[in-house]
Every structure is written in C-alpha cells, then in structure tokens.
Design goal:
Length: about 180
C-alpha cells in the first residue's frame, strides 16, 4: 500500500502542475519529506497526510481509498485497509467501503497510551466528524476547547481549524469516527 500511496501522491501533485517546492509551500511539509514520500522511501505520518489532504481537498479516507482496489459494497473485517503511524502510536482502519460518490465514511482509530496527534487544519474545511469512544479515554481539542471523553461518550464536531487527539487513559483508546463531507 505504501508504494501505491507514494504513486498517488506524486500523481496528485502532477495533476495540479506543482513542483515539490510549490507543494512544500502550500502544505508546510518539507520538500525532502515530500520527495521521500513520493518515492516510497518513507511512509508519511498522519500529520503529513492530513496536510496533504488539506491541500488536495480530500479526506484521508478518500486518499487512502484511491490507492485501494475497486470499491465494494461489503468489506469483511479481515479485508478492511489498515494504516499505521507507528511513531505516533496511531492505527487507522477504514471500516466502511470507500466510495468517491458518497459523503460519509466510518473509521476505527486506536491510540496507544500517551499518544498525542495534532492536526493543524482539517483535510476539508467544514468537515463533520462524530467520535464515539469504544474503549478507554480520549481528549479531543477543537478550537482550543478540550473535550474529555470516556467509553460510550460521543463528540460531534465540525472542523474549521486545528484539532488534537490525545489518549487520556493508561490503556490507550479505541474509537469509531464517522466522517461526513460538507
């Protein structure tokens, strides 16, 4: 999947007619990081992918679905694409079958104990998200307001600026994320 993702990132940049330098300026990601990601020398972190998604106007799920096979109506648990940002302690599973024509998707997120991921902007301004904590505790900061969630709690938010997801319990956190495009 990393090789297909690298090819898609290079393809998107080419579609926009941008040099690596121009994309670096637009995304705030270093030219060298972009170059290594496009050559599949490194797998981009969640934060880097988020910045690229913001520049390209797509959600992370949509970008990742673009490197998957033809979308299906049913995706068995064993076939659901999983992406990891190991240094950040984040695992992301695309639960719902992705489809470019649909506005909603369902994702499972897992953060190890102490994991803390900050996104400087939403991938799509006005993106709606519903976060339902399935296990553990999660602190989500939206527009400088921290929300403390425990098992069973659900937070609905519309994203216009920075957000932060932090595992707030000793055992990590597992959550369902419903994403709805504006």
């Amino acid at each position: 999947m990393d090789v297909r993702l690298a090819a898609r990132l290079a393809e998107l940049r080419a579609e926009h007619g941008w040099s690596l330098g121009e994309l670096a300026e637009r995304s705030g990601v270093s030219r060298s990081t972009l170059s290594r990601a496009e050559r599949a020398e490194t797998s981009p972190t969640a934060a880097v992918l988020n910045r690229l998604c913001a520049v390209y106007g797509r959600t992370m799920s949509r970008l990742l679905s673009e490197v998957e096979a033809e979308p299906a109506l049913l995706v068995r648990a064993a076939e659901q694409p999983v992406w990891e940002d190991r240094p950040a302690g984040f695992v992301r599973r695309s639960v719902s079958p992705p489809h470019a024509g649909l506005r909603g998707e369902l994702v499972e997120g897992r953060l190890v104990a102490g994991a803390d991921i900050a996104y400087d902007r939403p991938p799509v301004p006005g993106l709606e998200q519903h976060v339902w904590v399935l296990e553990g505790a999660l602190e989500i900061t939206v527009r400088d307001v921290a929300h403390h969630l425990v098992t069973g709690d659900c937070l609905r938010m519309r994203l216009w600026g920075p957000t932060r997801f932090r595992s707030a319990g000793p055992e990590g956190a597992r959550y369902a994320l419903a994403v709805v495009l504006p």
